[in-house]
Amino acid sequence: MALPAFADIVREHQGMVFSLAWHYLHDRALAEEMAQEVFLELYRHLGSIQSPEHLVFWLRKVASRKCIDQTRRRAFWPKFGLDDIPEPSAKTRQADPMLSGALAKLVASLPEKARMLVILRYQEDLDPSDIAQVLDMPVGTVKSHLQRALGVLRSKLARTVGEIAL
Amino acid sequence: MSNLEDDLRIALRREEPAADFTERVLARLNQPAPAEPTWLERLAVLMRPPRLQWVAVAMIVSVVIPAATVEYRGERAKQQLLVAMRVTGTKLHQAQRKVVETGRMGTRL
Fold first, then answer.
1. Mean pLDDT across B40-58
2. Using a CB cutoff of 8 Å and minimum separation of 24, what contacts does A88-97 make?
3. Cβ <8 Å between A10 and B17
4. CA distance A33 to chain B (A)
5. CATH of A90-166, one of 3.40.50.1220, 1.10.10.10, 3.30.70.270, 2.10.109.10
6. What pLDDT score does A82 carry?
7. pLDDT tens figures, A44-76
8. Chain B residues inside the 8 Å CB shell of A10
C-alpha cells in the first residue's frame, strides 16, 4: 500500500487507538508511543486485513493486547492514588471536567483486564459480545467483570466525591 | 442506564493525539530497520552496569557452586573411606583375635 493511503488510515483511526492507550495507561507520551507501534504493526500486516470492519477490529485487538502487555512487562501501576483525585466543585449532571478526570483516573486504577473491558465498553461503546471477541474471553466473563468493575468504580467514586448522586 | 455509565462515556470519550502523530508514524516507517548488532556490540552491552553486576554474579555462581559441589563430594568420599578403613581395621582385629584364640586352644589340646 502506498504511504499516502496508509496515512489516511492512520488519520482516520488514530483517535481510537490513541484513546484506548491513553485511558488505559494514563501517560500521554507512552500512549502515543504505543499507538505508533500499533500502526507500525498494522503496516506490516496490511495484507491480512479483509475489510474496513476487520481493520477496526484488528486495531482494537492489537491496541488492547499491547496495553495489557505493557502493564505486565513494566509492572506498571498508575502513579496516583485516591488522594490525588480532585474533588468536584459542584454536584452537577453536566459534563464536569473534575468528575470526568476523577472517573478516568479511577478507571486507570482498575486491574488490567477490567480496565480494558470498561474502556472498550464506554469509550468504544462495544457490546459484551464484541468485547469478548476483541479480548478472547467468554461473554459471561465479560459481563461479570463489567458488573464487578462498575461496582468498584461506584464505591470508589462515592468515597472520592461523597454524596454525588450515582 | 445509570448516571455512572453516562459519566463513564463522557470521561472516556475519544481524544486525538498530537497534531503531528501521523507524520511521526510515517517517519518511523521510512526509517531503515536497525542493523543486527555484532557479537562485539552484544558483549559490550553485557559489560555495562548494571548488567555487568549480573554477569559477575552469574559467573561467580557458575564457578562457586560446581567447585563447592566437587569439594563436598570429595569430603564425603574421604569420610566414607575413613569409615570403611575403620570397619576393616576392626574386622581384621577381631579375625586376628580369633586366630590367636584358636591357636592357644590347639596348643592346650
1. 76
2. A88/A161, A88/A164, A91/A163, A91/A164, A91/A165, A93/B3, A95/B10
3. no
4. 9
5. 1.10.10.10
6. 46
7. 999 999 999 999 999 999 999 999 998 877 654
8. 21-22, 25-26
